[in-house]
Specification:
This protein is mostly helical. Helix content is 69%, strand content 0%.
């Protein structure tokens, strides 16, 4: 592509002239599609990314600085970053989907429940309240250590210490070999 044509496209973009998008698509569309396809390995997603990229290019036209990068480099980065974002969102979405056919949630039988661990909450009452509060927040309420720290207004280091001590106290109640099973029953 000639430098004059590139400058013309940049001027049209910055003037918000519709012809700029047509020229960009005509001269860069196939290459940018190839960039998106290389990242995504899916033609439909690559087409979506190409369209999203052109929208971003249009909206960010005033941020292009020819002294920092050539037009193609700028277009390439926008398209590549958009493709990477799309790839991440697709992976996140599929990771969160529930796979009923491979889940054993519905296959829990009475034989898989160990009655020795049904009394965990009751046995937690036997340990000091400050440890019980931390264990309850982390295991029964499903908080992260940072969330428990914020919720209980306790420093993160103290949360970690109380977790360790609380688990040690439960270990005394359930015995040396049972603590892993207790933890598994708490988490699942």
């Amino acid at each position: 592509m000639s430098i004059l044509l590139e400058k013309h496209i940049v001027e049209l973009l910055q003037e918000r002239n519709d012809k700029a998008i047509s020229l960009l698509y005509e001269h860069y569309g196939d290459t940018l599609y190839g960039v998106a396809f290389k990242v995504l390995r899916d033609s439909e997603l690559a087409q979506d990314v190409l369209q999203e990229s052109f929208v971003k290019i249009w909206k960010k036209a005033d941020t292009y600085d020819s002294s920092k990068a050539k037009l193609f480099t700028w277009l390439f980065r926008i398209t590549r970053n958009t493709a990477i974002d799309k790839l991440r969102s697709v992976h996140t979405k599929t990771d969160k989907e529930i796979q009923i056919d491979v889940s054993d949630v519905y296959n829990v039988g009475v034989s898989s429940i160990n009655p020795d661990f049904l009394d965990v909450k009751e046995n937690m009452e036997k340990i000091d309240k400050k440890y019980c509060d931390v264990l309850d927040a982390l295991f029964f309420q499903g908080m992260t250590q940072q969330e428990a720290s914020d919720e209980l207004n306790i420093p993160l280091g103290t949360i970690k210490s109380r977790l360790k001590i609380g688990l040690r106290e439960l270990k005394k109640i359930y015995g040396e070999n049972s603590i892993l099973l207790v933890l598994l029953s708490l988490i699942t």
